[in-house]
Amino acid sequence: MRCSVHGESHLYLGKHYRLKIAQGDENSVKLSRGFFHVTLRDEPNPEGAKKLLSKWYWAKASLQFNNTLERCWPRVARFAGSKPAISVKQMQKRWGSLSDKRTVTLNTNLVKAPKECIDYVVTHELCHLKHPDHSAEFYKLLDTVSPGWDKVKHKLELGMV
Ligand SMILES: [Zn+2]
Predict the structure, then answer these.
(1) Ligand 1 mean position to 12 CA, how many Å?
(2) What CATH number is associated with residue 140?
(3) Tens digits of residue pLDDT in 120-137
(4) Contacts 24+ apart (CB under 8 A), 15-22
(5) What is the Å distance from ligand 1's center to 43 Cα?
(6) Are residues 95 and 124 in the same domain?
(7) Measured between alpha carbons, how far is 117 from 157 in angstroms, rounded to an integer?
(8) Torsion over CA of 124, 71, 67 and 50, rounded to 10 degrees?
(9) How far is the CA of 128 from the centre of ligand 1 (A)?
(10) 90 with 122, same domain?
């Protein structure tokens, strides 16, 4: 099998890409023209491609989420204290969480969602720096820094992700 195209599609930042697996000199993942081009040193196989893709997703998630933090930080900087760290993890049921140690942990799969959804999750967690609970004050703050967040939340929940 030199190259194969798979029916299932994979998401990145809200866009669908189909999967093409080929053999080559180096393991790599590239996005172009609507395709995930996965190159494997070994005989191309879906398992190997899956492993490589999940590494790729993790690396992109880490990059994108840190960019998101930079983008969203000015909205909350005046009340949020020092900037938290970002950690990226595979999680079953949550998009994000905030620890006592000021680390925002985000689900790797969130990088499959459109940027506005990532912004929403990050901003939500950043608002917890001021209000740790889901009190009325928390939602008031979220409304102020992120107007229309509920529509974005809905989009994320309808989720293709
Ligand atoms: Zn929350």
Answers:
(1) 24
(2) 3.30.2010.10
(3) 999 999 999 999 999 999
(4) 16/160, 19/49, 19/53, 21/45, 21/46, 21/49
(5) 45
(6) yes
(7) 10
(8) 50
(9) 7
(10) yes
Structural domain boundaries, residue 133: 59-158
| CA 100 to centroid of ligand 1, rounded, Å | 13
Domains: count for the chain: 2
Same domain, 137 and 63: yes
Q: How far is the CA of 133 from the centre of ligand 1 (A)?
A: 7
48, 86: one domain: no
45, 99, 131, 141, 149 from 80: Cα distances, Å: 47, 14, 10, 11, 19
**Hey, which residues does 31 pair with through a beta bridge?**
36
Within the chain, which residues score under 50 in pLDDT?
A: 1
| pLDDT value for 110 | 95
Distance 96 CA to ligand 1 centre (A): 8
**C-alpha of residue 91 to centroid of ligand 1, in Å:** 15
Structure confidence at residue 4 (pLDDT): 57
